[in-house]
């Protein structure tokens, strides 16, 4: 680019650069988009070029310095300062970036507009913004339809950026379906126990259900007990002769654990998909999940947390969960129920 700043004019929420800028701005450096005889810049692009003294911006016949332009841009676009921070970071590290949905399209290393398609769609957020799950799912779906990856660029209060890749996940494992069983269990306070030695050993050995209380008896969590009821397990309560039906078991479980049905829906779907789900308590999640019968119980593949469809993420909590899953070499997955079907999204930290 030449040393002489190009003349540009702010019109509403775009900046038009003087005639003759196509070669210098767009064809050589891929800033903006051609608009007739002009190049049309987004506010973030214009601020970046203004800071680098590559353009001069006029508004209402008056030249704007960087501060004046930045303040005007903030009044025109919500969270402009965050978008500028992310745009400046990506451009400064050699990425070609263009405005897009939700905020930016980012091209792969070595690629640029006209040569390669964009690789990432970037959403810019403040660490303080809640992120509704339905909104995130729409953006994940839109990115997938365009064969691109959705990236969340989260800006903290000190203007540091953390990037997260988000995608839908098809959860599939290698465990064969569990055949019908004939076993009995007693529901105690917050778990059930199978007393029969052979049935206990079989379920624990072939399906990694529960945890052995001793060499003969198997303890089951509430979600395991509920799932096995659908496979033929009969459950009674001490002092009562009638078997519990699922509605009664659910009512008792929900008094102990209000999130029970979310957990149960995720657990049952994971098991039906050939995966083995065990408690994720020590990781701060509902489940740690294995792709099959584990040879080493420390090496689960996923951490799964069940949430409502109308859940709104706290980005600070999400950051903690994803950071922990990354540190133990697992993928953080959120399970949700929509129209009676369980869906999953995976979120991972990424370097961009």
Give an overview of the whole structure.
With 352 residues, the protein is of the alpha+beta class. It has a domain at 1-76: MutS, DNA mismatch repair protein, domain I (3-Layer(aba) Sandwich), CATH 3.40.1170. Helices cover 31% and strands 31% of the residues. It has 10 helices and 23 strands. A hairpin with a 2-residue loop joins strand 1 and strand 2. The protein starts with 5 loop residues before the first strand and ends with a strand. The mean pLDDT is 94.
What would the keywords be for this entry?
elongated, 10 helices, alpha+beta, MutS, DNA mismatch repair protein, domain I, 23 strands, 10-stranded mixed beta sheet, 352 residues, 6-stranded mixed beta sheet
- The total strand number stands at 23
Distance between the termini: 26 Å
Structural class: alpha+beta
Content of β-strand: 25-35%
Q: Over the alpha carbons, how many angstroms does the gyration radius reach?
A: 27 Å
Task: Give a quick summary of the entry.
This protein is an alpha+beta fold.
Layout of helices and strands, plus pairs?
Elements: E1 6-11, E2 14-17, H1 22-29, E3 33-35, E4 38-41, H2 43-51, E5 55-59, E6 62-64, H3 66-76, H4 80-92, E7 97-99, E8 104-106, E9 120-126, E10 130-132, H5 133-145, E11 149-155, E12 161-168, E13 183-187, E14 192-194, H6 197-207, E15 211-212, E16 218-220, H7 222-229, E17 233-236, H8 246-256, H9 260-272, E18 276-279, E19 287-290, E20 302-307, E21 312-314, H10 315-327, E22 331-338, E23 341-350
Parallel strand pairs: 1-5, 9-11, 13-17, 20-22
Antiparallel strand pairs: 1-2, 2-4, 3-4, 5-6, 7-8, 8-9, 10-21, 11-12, 12-23, 13-14, 14-16, 15-16, 18-19, 19-20, 22-23
């Amino acid at each position: 680019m030449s040393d002489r700043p190009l003349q540009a004019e702010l019109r509403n929420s775009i900046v038009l650069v003087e005639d003759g800028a196509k070669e210098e701005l767009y064809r050589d450096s891929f800033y903006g988009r051609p608009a007739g005889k002009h190049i049309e810049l987004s506010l973030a692009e214009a601020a970046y070029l203004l800071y680098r003294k590559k353009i001069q911006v006029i508004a209402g016949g008056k030249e704007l310095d960087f501060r004046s332009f930045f303040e005007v841009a903030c009044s025109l676009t919500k969270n402009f300062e965050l978008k500028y921070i992310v745009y400046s970071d990506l451009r400064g590290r050699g990425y070609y970036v263009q405005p897009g949905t939700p905020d930016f399209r980012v091209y792969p290393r070595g690629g640029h507009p006209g040569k390669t398609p964009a690789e990432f769609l970037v959403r810019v957020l403040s660490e303080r913004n809640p992120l509704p799950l339905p909104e995130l799912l729409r953006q994940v779906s839109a990115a997938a339809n365009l064969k691109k990856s959705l990236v969340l660029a989260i800006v903290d209060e000190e203007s540091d950026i953390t990037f997260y890749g988000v995608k839908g996940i098809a959860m599939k494992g290698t465990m064969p379906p569990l055949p019908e069983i004939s076993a009995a269990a007693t529901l105690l306070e917050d778990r059930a126990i199978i007393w029969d030695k052979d049935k206990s050993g079989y379920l624990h050995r072939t399906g990694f259900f529960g945890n052995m209380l001793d060499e003969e008896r198997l303890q089951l969590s509430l979600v395991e007990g509920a799932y096995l009821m659908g496979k033929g397990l009969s459950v009674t309560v001490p002092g009562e002769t009638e078997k519990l039906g699922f509605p009664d078991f659910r009512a008792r479980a929900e008094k102990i654990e209000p999130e029970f049905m979310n957990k149960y829906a995720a657990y049952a779907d994971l098991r039906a998909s050939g995966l083995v789900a065990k408690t994720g308590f020590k990781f701060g999640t509902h489940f740690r999940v294995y792709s099959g019968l584990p040879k080493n119980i420390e090496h689960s593949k996923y951490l799964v947390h069940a949430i409502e469809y109308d859940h709104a993420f706290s980005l600070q909590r999400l950051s903690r969960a994803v950071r922990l899953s990354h540190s133990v070499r697992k993928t953080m997955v959120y399970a949700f129920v929509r129209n009676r079907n369980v869906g999953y999204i995976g979120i991972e930290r990424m370097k961009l």
